[in-house]
Each structure stands twice: as C-alpha cells, then as structure tokens.
Design goal:
- The protein is of the alpha/beta class and about 240 residues long.
- It has a single domain, classed as 2-Layer Sandwich (BirA Bifunctional Protein, domain 2), CATH 3.30.930.
- It has helices at about 25-40, 75-80, 115-135, 180, 195-200, 205-220, and strands at about 15-25, 50-55, 60, 85, 95, 100-105, 140, 145-150, 150-160, 165-175, 225-230.
- It has an 8-stranded mixed beta sheet with strand order 7-8-9-10-6-2-1-11, with helices on both faces. Strands 4-3-5 form a 3-stranded mixed beta sheet, with no helix packed on it.
- Helix 3 (about 115-135) crosses helix 6.
Length: about 240
C-alpha cells in the first residue's frame, strides 16, 4: 500500500512549473537553469520550476568530490568523449547517462521558509517515497546526500542555493548501464539502480510521474503544471562514443 501524500504546511501560493525536456546535453540544461533562476527570483508568489531530463554520458564533480574518485584515466575519458564538469554544488562525483533521471528544482527557498538542510530533507523524502512505490526499500543516510537501498546508492543529491534560489539537482538511477556507473568511486558504497534492486525492468515514465508528484507534495506545492520542452532551451548536438 502506498504511503499517504504529505500535506501542505501553508507555504506561499504559486505552482510548480515542471518542464519535461527528454535527453538534453548537460550544458544546455545548466544554461536553461540559469535563465529560470532569474525568473523565479522575480516572482512574488512562491512559484518554482522543475527541469526533468536525461543526459548523455558525463561526469560531474561537486564540492565534496575529487579527481581521486574517477576510476578511469583522462585518455579513456577522451576516447569515450565523456566530459568532466566541476560544479559549485553539494555532493561528490556523479556519473550521468541515459537511463538516469535528472531533476533540477529551481525554488525560492527563503520565500518558502527553508534552508539547505530542510530542502535536502524534503528532496530525499520524496526519493524514499519513490522507491517505496517502486517496491524498493530505501533509506536516507545522514552523512551522505542521496538515498540507499540493499544493493547500494540508488539516487544522488547535489544542490546549491544562490541568492535564495536553489539550483542543481537530484539524480535517480532508473536503468542506466551499470558499467557507466562504475566510472566513479562512490564515497558511500557502490552505485546501483532501481532495475538492479528489483531484478527487473523499471518504467522510466512511471518513475518520472511518481517523482514529480512526490516532489510537489514534499515541496508544499498544491498545484503543478506539466510542459513538454521549454522555449528557452537551446539544444546542442555532439557525437558521443559510449562503449
């Protein structure tokens, strides 16, 4: 039986605007995120935005990460055409690849009465609810940003707050290639996926729908609007050698 939806705590009005972007190059997603941060900062009703997408193969490294976490050489990364991005977000190194769901919540956290720790808790609780609906037992770990299950870390969290607006995101391994996840040494055990934990195929659309719904509830948005794409998204094209 599914857990009850969290109730609103009386946060400001305003809806969560959710943009389904599909497969998007990481730099294009970050550029759109920057545009939306300026828009959200100008709203006076608590409105927020959520970008939902997947990325071509890439490694990002947060403030707690280091080059020592990468298990592959620079030559191997060049051969696979896998870029590495160093970011001013929380968390360590994360591998991104098709089959991983990336979500970027762009929220007026100060207006909604949250700090970084409160935001992290809400995001992680939404991830735990997602796993429960997917029939995967999962839990939070105080010293690690993300969510864990019996086979390892199934979701990573790396957020930042700048000028009272949140950025960067959370990353759920739904069914990516496991050899891609092994390119990075996790600080808190091995990375896993929902498909691995369940031992069977997991539907990406079902995970996406569930997580959007759970995030809206835990972030105290009584309404959310879904859009396919975004007019300000500038897609880039590059050849990816993923072998």
């Amino acid at each position: 039986m599914n857990a009850p939806e969290p109730k609103s705590t009386g946060a400001p009005n305003g809806a969560l605007e959710v943009y389904l972007l599909g497969l998007v190059d990481f730099d294009a997603a970050i550029a759109l995120q920057e545009r939306l941060m300026r828009e959200v900062a100008g709203y006076d009703d608590g409105r927020g935005a959520l970008l939902v997408c997947e990325h071509p193969p890439l490694i990002t490294v947060g403030r707690e990460g280091s080059r020592a976490e990468l298990r592959c050489s620079q030559e191997e990364l060049l051969a696979r055409q896998i870029a590495v991005r160093w970011l001013n977000r929380g968390g360590g190194s994360v591998v991104h690849a098709p089959g991983q769901l990336a979500l970027y919540p762009i929220l007026p956290v100060a207006r909604r009465g949250w700090g970084l720790s409160a935001l992290r808790e809400r995001l992680e609780l939404a991830l735990v609810d997602l796993c429960r609906e997917t029939h995967v037992r999962a839990w939070r770990v105080p010293e690690a940003a993300g969510v864990f299950c019996r086979t390892g870390q199934v979701a990573h969290l790396g957020v930042a707050i700048r000028s009272s607006i949140s950025s960067h995101g959370l990353f759920v391994n739904v069914s990516p290639r496991m050899d891609a996840l092994s390119l990075v040494r996790s600080q808190f055990g091995r990375a896993t996926s929902l498909a691995t934990a369940r031992g069977q195929t997991v539907s990406m659309p079902a995970v996406r729908e569930c997580l959007i719904r759970r995030l809206a509830a835990h972030l105290d948005y009584e309404r959310y609007h879904l859009y396919t794409g975004h007019p300000l998204l500038v897609r880039t094209k590059r050849v990816v050698a993923y072998a």
